[in-house]
Amino acid sequence: MTTAIAPEVYTAMGLNGLEFNRIVELLGRVPSHTELGMFAVMWSEHCGYKYSRPVLAAFKRYKEALEGSGLENAGIVDIGDGLGVTMKIESHNHPSAVEPYQGAATGVGGIIRDILTMGARPIACLDSLRFGPIVDGEAEPAVVDRNRYLFEHVVAGIGGYGNCVGVPTVAGEVAFHPRYSGNPLVNAMCVGILRLDEIATAAAAGPGNPVVYLGSATGRDGIHGATFASDTLGEDNDAKRPNVQIGDPFAEKLLIEATLDALQTGAVVAIQDMGAAGLTCSTVEMSSKGGVGMAIDLDLVPAREADLSGYELMLSESQERMLAVAKAGREAELIAAFERWGLKAVVIGRVTDDGLVAVRRHGEIVANVAAKALTDHCPTYTNEKRPSAAFERAARFDPGSLPALDPNYALLRLLGHPDLASKRWVFRQFDQQVQTQTALVSGAGDAAVLAPRGTRKGLAVKIDGNARQTYLHPRRGGKLAVAEAARNVACTGAKPVAITDGLNFGNPQLPHVYWQFDEAVRGIAEAAEVLGTPVISGNVSFYNQSDLGEVLPTPLIGMLGVMDDVECRLPLSPPPGNGLLALVSVPFVLSDQRGLGASAYAALACGVEDGYPEEPNLEGERALAEFLVGAASERRLISAHDSSEGGLAVALAEIAVVGGHAIEANLQGEAIPALFGERPGQVVLSVANEAAITWLASQARSRGLELGKIGTYREGTGLAIQVEDKTAIRLEGDALQSAYDYAIPNLMGH
Amino acid sequence: MKVAVIRFPGANCDQDALHALRDDAHIDAEYVWHEDHSLRGYDAALLPGGFTYGDYLRCGAMAAGAPILDEVARFAREGRPVIGVCNGFQILCEAGLLPGALMANAKQKFLCRDVHLQAVNRSSFWTRGVTKTLRMPIAHLEGRYVADPDTICRLEDEDRIAFRYVPGPGESPEDANPNGATHAIAGVLNEKGNVLGIMPHPERATRKILGSDDGLLILRALCAAKAAA
């Protein structure tokens, strides 16, 4: 088993010379081919977090977990009533670039299994998508066509998998930018619910206990997927198609029911998903977490093809598989639960006490490695950091240099841009209501709201990110993403309680990328601290670049909020009727870039991607969230919608179109900044009458917030906005609706 | 009065249906496994939505051959109430208990949205309580009801169109028919009127918090089941 290994072999697997030497040192010998493959996937960025680990220590709970018992698959939030909520984001960017339907579908499948192996029933999926431009003229025609193809098939893949597996896709976001043309971003998030006394663990225990392989058979698909995820995309994308796994949502649905049934038997000691790096990752991580070893016989693994080598079996990423440790003598209960659902459950080995993962194929030992060597001795790197040129340029942005656009034209342009237009074309392809717990569907609120059975509480969930802001000012971009996600959740009446993040960046070995990553993470960590929303789980995806360039730095924030009574949930637009509109604002001193730096107005209406986003007032955001939660629970609000991309003009237009109202409003200040400036910490409220405004204003004042009436809504259509009593915008309902509702269907041809 | 909610592998609305019946319609209901051979002790059967057997051969085709379907067919013959929702409707068609078929939506895309429904037949077991326009969600890729012209004529002549899609407030007739179904048919009945196949999901519209409780008007017909059977 010790033959010399040529450098081409390990570099092809993604390892460098230093890493290879460390492996030889750890083993005290040259690794076998299978062992080398195991190190390559476990030490890939995807599994090993080589570049991100030092930076992620900025997240308090992550740091504590690293120093304590080790990171579990996802964190858990106690929501009361004996219930916990768990959530996590996972990226599937590279597979989706190559094979969009399966890439996106298996991304959904993987994140659902991550949640399932906590012992939680998956109750909702969300997704965050980035593509290159789909508007003619914003890129080469062939590139636009390719982007539309990717968009169409990624959405179909998410729906094809999520709809079948019976987990509702309740919220998401989509944005477009030339930087994503060669490398789309596909991030899936899953939320699960469990009884706090039934949390499952991934830590193997009890030498002699049987190791049980669960689910679908193993084939050759997805070998080295984790390594593929940790490389850049290039011209050989098509050649990498076999790296992409094929999803079977029917098998996953059975896996969900069988796993939850099996966990109820009490015969399961530990369980983990076989996701990235397949059998390698699950055997190694479960052993490492439990401080034990495993002896595995690969001849017992259910295989789709007879001639799979040990290397292939250990590295395959065939989908819908899990690994469990059962209590000795009780494996039959686990196996029966799986066979009832028509799934395979096979004992493939035993837990051992020597800390070694020992793997046999055809009677020969093909790998014999200390689990801890693979999990704890992965080298970490701290790279050079250098501020990006875009950041240095953006400091000098002068909003006075923007062209003076007619506000009516600018508003229609923003509403009709696929970034801001209605995403109905997307979310109608997703089953949003299966499990019958969806109390506020996509597009109806600033976040989706779930009404889980067994509690009166409501859960608000949201995924959000603004790459333009992060590109131009990564630190603020990180903070703003957290602030906005928290505000969105609070707009439904829920208290923001926890974050999962999805960090999508370029090549971390480039100083400006590493700087963007470091800055954005610090921004997220600071905002999470002030808002009291710990980062409980997350995912890092590097090397998002192709021959068409590197992606914008895209940190995504998945936010969970909890409300005491789900009946108090708020939509973004009031139901049919008449009433008043009020604006509640965090106290704020606008910079001399007037809220137009890094704004949608500058980028999408004026074609200028420049300037800094405003620095959010995080203490004020926290007070705003508390105000919204209080006012919603007192039932003083009819709806709440935050001002974000496109400013108050877009927020008011959305309220008009989504609810079918005629809106009149009067704003203060200089026209363009008042209409389109992206001042953080502003929420448009609808209320019944003046008395409600008086009550709300006193509540707002007591929290240091400003609140005042800005207009009215009534049955009808259309939008009229005055600034300082001068008409700035006057648009018919049809014009608003055709821009907002039909932009994406028109571009996609149906 | 007890309803059998048939549990097939890959169905994903079985739990929703059980909760809707028990918790919201206050009707006794239990799961019955697809491999079982008896519906003894039950008064009605519900075939839930989802993707039975992954819909891999053809929607509902494999479930139509499950052992329990013999008993569902007996219920249909004996005049006991049977309802198939979404994939359950597809199963009933595949099993020959209802005429016609459900084909891919006109726009070839999965579609999840609210629709409005009117009962056409007003006298059957399932529809006699439905006098107002109902609002409830659909969620399907293959929900376009089709049948040969003779069958459609017969269904109309025999008053076996259970529900049609109708425009909601401010909606055009084209937008009202979400999948391009023949004559906007959303649900059909068997000859006796005891078997209903319906594409929209009444079990998803049983509480105001879910957006509508109009589905109860259909499910509560089951309260009268024992007398009818």
From TrEMBL, chain A:
<dbReference type="InterPro" id="IPR041609">
    <property type="entry name" value="PurL_linker"/>
</dbReference>
<dbReference type="Pfam" id="PF00586">
    <property type="entry name" value="AIRS"/>
</dbReference>
<dbReference type="GO" id="GO:0005737">
    <property type="term" value="C:cytoplasm"/>
</dbReference>
<keyword id="KW-0658">Purine biosynthesis</keyword>
<dbReference type="GO" id="GO:0000287">
    <property type="term" value="F:magnesium ion binding"/>
</dbReference>
<feature type="active site">
    <location>
        <position position="46"/>
    </location>
</feature>
<comment type="subunit">
    <text>Monomer. Part of the FGAM synthase complex composed of 1 PurL, 1 PurQ and 2 PurS subunits.</text>
</comment>
<feature type="binding site">
    <location>
        <position position="90"/>
    </location>
    <ligand>
        <name>Mg(2+) 1</name>
    </ligand>
</feature>
<feature type="binding site">
    <location>
        <position position="539"/>
    </location>
    <ligand>
        <name>Mg(2+) 1</name>
    </ligand>
</feature>
<feature type="binding site">
    <location>
        <position position="114"/>
    </location>
    <ligand>
        <name>Mg(2+) 2</name>
    </ligand>
</feature>
<feature type="domain" description="PurM-like C-terminal">
    <location>
        <begin position="580"/>
        <end position="723"/>
    </location>
</feature>
<dbReference type="InterPro" id="IPR036921">
    <property type="entry name" value="PurM-like_N_sf"/>
</dbReference>
<comment type="function">
    <text>Part of the phosphoribosylformylglycinamidine synthase complex involved in the purines biosynthetic pathway. Catalyzes the ATP-dependent conversion of formylglycinamide ribonucleotide (FGAR) and glutamine to yield formylglycinamidine ribonucleotide (FGAM) and glutamate. The FGAM synthase complex is composed of three subunits. PurQ produces an ammonia molecule by converting glutamine to glutamate. PurL transfers the ammonia molecule to FGAR to form FGAM in an ATP-dependent manner.</text>
</comment>
<protein>
    <recommendedName>
        <fullName>Phosphoribosylformylglycinamidine synthase subunit PurL</fullName>
        <ecNumber>6.3.5.3</ecNumber>
    </recommendedName>
</protein>
<dbReference type="GO" id="GO:0005524">
    <property type="term" value="F:ATP binding"/>
</dbReference>
<dbReference type="Pfam" id="PF18072">
    <property type="entry name" value="FGAR-AT_linker"/>
</dbReference>
<feature type="binding site">
    <location>
        <position position="541"/>
    </location>
    <ligand>
        <name>substrate</name>
    </ligand>
</feature>
<dbReference type="InterPro" id="IPR010074">
    <property type="entry name" value="PRibForGlyAmidine_synth_PurL"/>
</dbReference>
<feature type="binding site">
    <location>
        <position position="88"/>
    </location>
    <ligand>
        <name>ATP</name>
    </ligand>
</feature>
<dbReference type="InterPro" id="IPR010918">
    <property type="entry name" value="PurM-like_C_dom"/>
</dbReference>
<feature type="binding site">
    <location>
        <position position="501"/>
    </location>
    <ligand>
        <name>ATP</name>
    </ligand>
</feature>
<comment type="pathway">
    <text>Purine metabolism; IMP biosynthesis via de novo pathway; 5-amino-1-(5-phospho-D-ribosyl)imidazole from N(2)-formyl-N(1)-(5-phospho-D-ribosyl)glycinamide: step 1/2.</text>
</comment>
UniProtKB/TrEMBL annotation, chain B:
<dbReference type="InterPro" id="IPR010075">
    <property type="entry name" value="PRibForGlyAmidine_synth_PurQ"/>
</dbReference>
<dbReference type="GO" id="GO:0004642">
    <property type="term" value="F:phosphoribosylformylglycinamidine synthase activity"/>
</dbReference>
<keyword id="KW-0436">Ligase</keyword>
<protein>
    <recommendedName>
        <fullName>Phosphoribosylformylglycinamidine synthase subunit PurQ</fullName>
        <ecNumber>6.3.5.3</ecNumber>
        <ecNumber>3.5.1.2</ecNumber>
    </recommendedName>
</protein>
<feature type="active site" description="Nucleophile">
    <location>
        <position position="86"/>
    </location>
</feature>
<dbReference type="GO" id="GO:0004359">
    <property type="term" value="F:glutaminase activity"/>
</dbReference>
<dbReference type="GO" id="GO:0005524">
    <property type="term" value="F:ATP binding"/>
</dbReference>
<feature type="active site">
    <location>
        <position position="201"/>
    </location>
</feature>
<dbReference type="GO" id="GO:0006189">
    <property type="term" value="P:'de novo' IMP biosynthetic process"/>
</dbReference>
<comment type="subunit">
    <text>Part of the FGAM synthase complex composed of 1 PurL, 1 PurQ and 2 PurS subunits.</text>
</comment>
<keyword id="KW-0963">Cytoplasm</keyword>
<comment type="pathway">
    <text>Purine metabolism; IMP biosynthesis via de novo pathway; 5-amino-1-(5-phospho-D-ribosyl)imidazole from N(2)-formyl-N(1)-(5-phospho-D-ribosyl)glycinamide: step 1/2.</text>
</comment>
<keyword id="KW-0315">Glutamine amidotransferase</keyword>
<comment type="function">
    <text>Part of the phosphoribosylformylglycinamidine synthase complex involved in the purines biosynthetic pathway. Catalyzes the ATP-dependent conversion of formylglycinamide ribonucleotide (FGAR) and glutamine to yield formylglycinamidine ribonucleotide (FGAM) and glutamate. The FGAM synthase complex is composed of three subunits. PurQ produces an ammonia molecule by converting glutamine to glutamate. PurL transfers the ammonia molecule to FGAR to form FGAM in an ATP-dependent manner.</text>
</comment>
<keyword id="KW-0067">ATP-binding</keyword>
<feature type="active site">
    <location>
        <position position="203"/>
    </location>
</feature>
<keyword id="KW-0658">Purine biosynthesis</keyword>
<keyword id="KW-0378">Hydrolase</keyword>
<keyword id="KW-0547">Nucleotide-binding</keyword>
<dbReference type="InterPro" id="IPR029062">
    <property type="entry name" value="Class_I_gatase-like"/>
</dbReference>
<dbReference type="GO" id="GO:0005737">
    <property type="term" value="C:cytoplasm"/>
</dbReference>
<dbReference type="Pfam" id="PF13507">
    <property type="entry name" value="GATase_5"/>
</dbReference>
